[in-house]
Amino acid sequence: MASPYTGAQPPYPAGAHQPPPPAQALLQQNHSLAFRVMRLSRPSLQPDQAAALRFDPRDVFLPEDALTGPDPSASSAADAAAFLQGLLHPLDSPATTVPGDFTFRDRFLLRDPVDALALPGLLVLPQSFGAIYLGETFCSYISINNSSSFEARDVAIKAEIQTERQRILLLDTSKAPVESIRSGGRYDFIVEHDVKELGAHTLVCTALYNDGDGERKYLPQFFKFTVSNPLSVRTKVRTIKDTTYLEACIENHTKSNLYMDQVDFEPSQQWAATRLEADEHPSTVKSIIGDLCKQPILIRAGGGIYNYLYQLRPSSGESGQTKAEGSSILGKFQITWRTNLGEPGRLQTQNIHSTPTASKDVDLRAVKVPPVIFLERPFMVNLCLTNQSDKTVGPFEVFLAPSVLDEEKYVLVNGLQKLVLPLVEAFESINFDLSMVATQVGVQKISGITLYAVQEKKLYEPLSDIEIFVDAE
C-alpha cells in the first residue's frame, strides 16, 4: 500500500545551490503544480497486546449495537441472531459458548492456537517510508497536483533515479505530454526500479508546463532515500588435497524475517560444486511433492544466520596445466528470498576466491603401499613426482632423512640410500618405487622421505608420515 514519503517541501540534492528560505517560499508559490511521492509497499500483521477482545467474524455482518440494543427481542435482531448462530456455530460442532449468547464475555476464550498471537485480524498500512534494501524493487506512486485556480496545459513529466554512478530514466512524457490538469485535479502514475546499488539515491521528478497566463514553467523536485544491505555473506575456504570446502554464513540485517527460496553456488568453469547437508531423520517422509514444494529456509530478523557448506572438486575435463595455471576464482552465489508477506528480493555476490597458497614447482606423494608387510622382508612403496611448473626440472635425489630428535627408526631404506631420478618435463609426472624394510612389528611410521634438487641445491619438505602395520611371519 502507499505511504507518504516527504512533507510539503522536498529536499534539494546534495551539492546543489539551495535558495534562502524566502526564495524557497516564493518558488513554491509561483508554481501551480507540485509532486507528491508515496511508496507502494505491502501491509503488515501488527500484534496488538492491548487488545482485550478477540476479533470475531460477526463484527463484519452486524453493527456494534445490533444485538445489545435496548430491544434485543425485536424480530429483525432475533432473525439475524438465529442466522449467525447457525452460520458460525453449526449443530454438529461443539458449542463453546452459551447458545444465543452474543455478548462479549466469550471474546477472552482462545478457540484456536493462533489467537494467542494477539493478532487483531486486520492488516496495518505502513506509516512511514520505511527502509529500502539492495536487491528489492522500489515501487513508487507519484501524483502531480494542480493546487492553483488555473488550468495547467501541455505538461511534460519526467521521473529519474539518480545514484552516485548513473542516472536511470523511469518515465518520460515529453513526446506525448499530458494535455491538461484542471484546477484541483491531478495526474497519477507508478514507477518501478530494481535496486542494484548501495548508498544515497535521489528520485528526481520534473514537469514542464504552461501556466494559466501562458508562461512556460519548469518544476523540479527531489526526493532522497538511502539503500542498505539486507544481508551479508561471510565465506571460509579450506583445501584438503584435491578437495576444496566452501562455507558460507548468511546473516539477516533487516527488521523482518527472510525466507530463502534459493541459495545456489555457481562454480567457475574449472570447478564442480556439491552442497553438503546434514542427514535427515529416519522418520522424515520423502515424496515427490515434498521435493517440488520445498520449504524455504527461515533466517530470523535482526541478526539471524544460516550456514551453507559446499564441496568443490576440479572438473573432470581439466588438465594438469589448466589447473596449475587456472584462476583462483571459485564462483559466486545467487540468492533469492521473500519477506513475511511475500515481497521478493534477489542478490548476486561477487566472485569468491580460493585461499592463496604458496605454489610448489614439484609435488611428491605416496601412491601405493602394500597392504601386508612382514618383519624384515623388503617391500616397495610406489611414489609419484609431479612437475607443476612450465619448465623442465631435475635431476633429483630421494633419500630417508635422519630423525630430528634422534629417535630410532624402525622402517629403513633397503639397498642404496639415495635414489637418483632423471629430468621431469613441464607438467609431467614420473612414478618410481622405493625399496624399504621394517625392523619392528606393530604399527610403524614411514617418515623422512625427502626430495633434493641437485642443480638448484634445493631441499624440499619431507613427505608426510605414512602409517603401516608390520606383521611377524
Could you explain the architecture of this structure?
The chain is mostly beta strands and 473 residues long. It folds into 4 domains: 143 residues, Immunoglobulin-like (Sandwich); 66 residues, no CATH class; 122 residues, Gamma-adaptin ear (GAE) domain (Immunoglobulin-like, Sandwich); 110 residues, Immunoglobulin-like, CATH 2.60.40. The protein is built from 5 helices and 32 strands. The strands form 8 sheets. Strands 5, 7, 8, 9, 11 and 12 form a 6-stranded mixed beta sheet that branches. Strands 15, 17, 19, 20 and 21 form a 5-stranded antiparallel beta sheet that branches. A 4-stranded antiparallel beta sheet has the order 1-2-6-10, with no helix packed on it. A hairpin with a 4-residue loop joins strand 30 and strand 31. The protein is elongated and about 110 Å long. The N terminus is likely disordered. This is Trafficking protein particle complex subunit 13. It comes from Oryza nivara (Indian wild rice). Belongs to the TRAPPC13 family. InterPro entries: TRAPPC13 (IPR010378), TRAPPC13_C (IPR055428), TRAPPC13_M (IPR055429), TRAPPC13_N (IPR055427). One of its GO terms (cellular component) is TRAPPIII protein complex.
Rg, Å, rounded = 38 Å
Domains counted in the coordinates: how many? 4
Instruction: Specify the structural class.
Output: mainly beta
CATH level 3 topology of the largest domain: Immunoglobulin-like
User: What share of residues are in beta strands?
Assistant: 35-45%
Instruction: Look at the structure and give the mean pLDDT.
Output: 77
The beta-strand count equals 32
Let me know the largest β-sheet. 6 strands, mixed
- Low-pLDDT stretches: 1-28, 92-102, 319-326
Quote the distance from N terminus to C terminus: 86 Å
The CATH class of the largest domain turns out to be: Mainly Beta
Helix content: under 10%
* Number of helical regions: 5
CATH architectural name of the largest domain:
Sandwich
Name the overall outline: elongated
